[in-house]
Amino acid sequence: MFIEVLKSKIHRVTVTKANLDYIGSITIDSALMEAAGLYEGEKVSVVNVTNGNRVETYAIAGQAGKGQIELNGAAAHLFSEGDIVIIMSYAIMEPAEVAAHKPSVVFPDTATNKLL
Description:
This protein has helices at about 30-35, 95-100; strands at about 5-15, 15-20, 25-30, 45-50, 55-60, 70, 85-95, 105. With about 120 residues, it is mostly beta strands. It has a single domain (about 5-95), classed as Barwin-like endoglucanases, CATH 2.40.40.
């Protein structure tokens, strides 16, 4: 048996752009991705704290240190610039692995989306 557990979390960042005319995904400051252990192309859940919407998409690395958090494509209908979001990824593990697993959680400055 396998279970799905939290692997990485970027807690409370601010959306800097919602770009409807894009193929899809979320662009995330690569410094935040590295700190959280997220990989480019990795599936992520994005929860909108501001309005309660939630989507699943994949991560694209943005420029490091720029604070970029952009919802692209259809997700732009559910997220707006200035919304506060939480970005999470998950890993599939055997129950014996879960006891030793510690998710990587990053708490950036919500005003700048930069690491504290």
